[in-house]
Amino acid sequence: MCVDEFGPLSIQPFSGCGWYPKSRPDRLPATYRGTHGVRHLFAALDLKADKLYGHVSSSKKHQDILRFLKVLRRRYHRSERLYVVLDNFSPHKHRTVTEWAAENNVELVFTPTQASWLNRIKSHFAPLRSFVLRGSNYPNHEALATAIRSYLRWRNKHSRHARLLREQKKIKVV
């Protein structure tokens, strides 16, 4: 499993393109007020099944990461060792996370420092950005989370779609 966070996700208009009636384009507001706070997407890529899993959270503390890892652990038989590839974000290395992993047959594998791009899930964030965020203006975080969940379901059914594969090549190294 490859695990990483995507975000922060804020409620703001994102520019993009779309199909609109001639001379009636969809207009995005020029300004927005950031009163909604931000959310973070915890995402996991199952390399064996080529499936994406995700959970939207209001924070990205070690408790949130641990909660997400527990959900992933429940997807697999207890006797099956789970290898989780992570970057060196400090909450990933928190004592409670590492102790839980040792007790639950989960091995945390960390990418080298300054090389988080080696985590294969990074290539799946460009399509997410393209399909969910580009050209959007969500009214609230629930609508954004619903769109993300809808994309993840679509992606798991169409993992070899040509446009999806093109977008995966657009890795943004931060």
From TrEMBL:
GO terms for molecular function: nucleic acid binding. Transmembrane segments: none annotated. Signal peptide: none annotated. Pfam families: DDE_3 (PF13358). It comes from the Bacteria. Residues 2-144 form the Tc1-like transposase DDE domain. SUPFAM superfamilies: Ribonuclease H-like (SSF53098). This is Tc1-like transposase DDE domain-containing protein. It comes from Kyrpidia spormannii. The lineage of its organism: Bacteria, Bacillati, Bacillota, Bacilli, Bacillales.
